[in-house]
Design a protein that fits this description.
The complex is a heterodimer of chains A (250) and B (298). Chain A is mostly helical. Helix content of chain A is 82%, strand content 0%. Chain B is of the alpha/beta class and 298 residues long. Helix content of chain B is 36%, strand content 28%.
Chain lengths: 250, 298
Amino acid sequence: MKTFLKFLELEYNLTWKPSVLGAVFGAFFVLHLCSLGGSKAVVSTNYNQTYILEALAGSLYLPIFLVVIISYIYSKSIADCISSGLMKSLLSHPIKRDYVLSAKVVLNFLVLLTACFLPIFYAKIVFSVDSRAVTSVIVTFVLKLLSYSSLATLLCLIMREPLLSFAGTLFSLYIVESITDFFRALRLWELANIVNLNRLALSFYGAFLSRAPLRVLIESGALYTLVLYISFSVICLILSLIVFRRMDLD
Amino acid sequence: MYTVETENLVKFFERIEALRGLTMHVPKGISGFIGPNGAGKTTTINILAGLVKPDKGSARVLDLDVVKESLEIRRRARFMLENQTLPSHLTIEKYMKYIAFLYNADFREINKALKIVGLEKFRHRLIGSLSAGMMQRLRFAQTLLGESELIILDEPTANLDPLGRIEILEKIVELNKDRNISFLLSSHILPELEKIVNWVSIINEGKIVAEGKLSDIISPQKYSEFKIFSSDNYTLANLLKDYGYEIEVEENYILVKASEAWNLYKTLALLTDYNINIYKIETVGASLEEVFKKLVRK
């Protein structure tokens, strides 16, 4: 555990320079507040919780930003580290490959999650949003970040070259982001509903307000979405570990 | 027990066969691992460090399997890789603290290691601001942290000035004597290597072409060059040239290159009709560099 924490610290020093950290946090905050500011909740004096909820989940509606920032961070943290030879250097010391990769994934995930959380907590304090609404948004964010991060990790390990990894991850995450529209275009409504991560916050909020939350989750398809994206994340992470363990660092 | 032992190592990088059944046995002490560029030295060292997996064959370091017991190998041995990348925005001290932590080394050892390589005054400098030579010293310093039985160095004197090279080589000899640490050095600067190693493995095109004690490797080649002192060096040189020998005429003697001493003697016997008195024939010992060139050209 001590070694893992030390590696989190080392990974923080390698990837998250103060300037990168400041830029990510600042961008999340500004973009989130922009979406909040543009919502009906802020302009209306008698705002509705649902509007606030939509506004809180506003960052979810900024897919390009989230996709770009995840692609950048993971390509820098993983692909750049491999192609620059730093990974080889780290692994020439007595440290398990699983530790190094886990430290990278966990730290990046936690920093991005914190960057998402801060503006949400800020909005909760300023607009006195219902805690259940905040929790719904947070769970959605966790799931979204988890699935995007695990896919980004796998792609960066396969591509290894930073620019290629950035472009490849950006493209792949954009496909995932727009898969709902794809199914809608094919008129596969149920499938479109299940793969739509962005509506999870509202479904969770509905479940929180209901007396039969599980039924609400099943009927809205949110439970399937949850299972689908958790499975997807786990598969991507397992594959990442397999790829990394077998990787030649020449 | 050998410190490094490989059997029929084969490694492909896509279609390129980097190692073609490499078998080597390196005993304790200071050993040299030499070969031309692209011969497979770095690939072999990467396999020993567990960074690259062999396609065929087996390798053991300190009697531990490089595939199954790689972590334990990296605990007991140290690796300095060629042009090893170090985190540029960390200070020397901070970086060394991380490495010391990984080897369970006392932080006081950092001072000692930096002093050995002459970087103690620069401990607060960012790694990115170091010169190529200082970076190389830092790479060497990190191998000195904690207890180790074997240090494998890939081009340890690269980027160092002549004085720096001598310093590092002297430290290697000192560490071998004082701490009983074995070394495997891959280097291109053979005259330097020759002074400190007692065992040599020569690699070419992914295979070991010669291996053994330095004296055993060099001695069969001792009669490759001969100094001949005669009454008429100029005429003798021309006659030997006609017999296909490579000749250099010096002030008092001629230098003859011959693959076999016996052949040269037979040729000289044929030249008795020319009334040239041969006063003395001296054999010239071949250097490791010459042996290396010969073996690689074969």
